[in-house]
Amino acid sequence: MINHHFSTVFVALVALTAVTAPANTAERTSYGIAPAGEREYGAKLLVCGICHGEKGVPKNPAIPVIWGQQENYLQKQLHDFESGDRAFEAMAWMAKTFSQEEQGSAAAYFAKKSWPGRSAAASASPPATVAVCQACHQHNFVGGVAAPRLGGQSYEYLVEAMRRFADGERTNNADMTNIMKALSPAEREAMARFISGL
Known about the structure:
By secondary structure, the protein is an all-alpha fold. It has helices at residues 2-20, 25-31, 38-52, 71-83, 89-97, 100-111, 130-137, 155-166, 174-182, 185-196.
């Protein structure tokens, strides 16, 4: 019943957004895909903004920033949501609405956006475990080819993502699962506080 209700609401959102999605050529080409089906694709991108924020700042701190995130990471997450390798009902439905071409275009579209500016956060001392995470996520946690940007994500999102890896609820990255299982909850919380302040 809940799944049916969610899918009905989601389809209605996409349909409503498609009616109001931009149709002019300049806006079409900014999405990066062929004009065929552009209005529907643009509507899907607008639906992303409902949770992830129209200007890249999520409305809920448990939702990650995707503006300015690594393109290859975004595309992998869409694939993982679609395949079920990463579980989250809303994103599973969303990812399944995109074709493979649209998944790539959506990843490129959000990757080209600027990471949203934030007011300066209180700086925390780096925890002892910082070097373990920087090996992949780079200095200041800006991310790289192998790993997403984490610096500036919210504490709420980071600590929950770390917990889900540690508890085996999120399994789409075996290295992260092993690393997070090796850290105590207190170490994960300290790391999340530090990274969210960058």
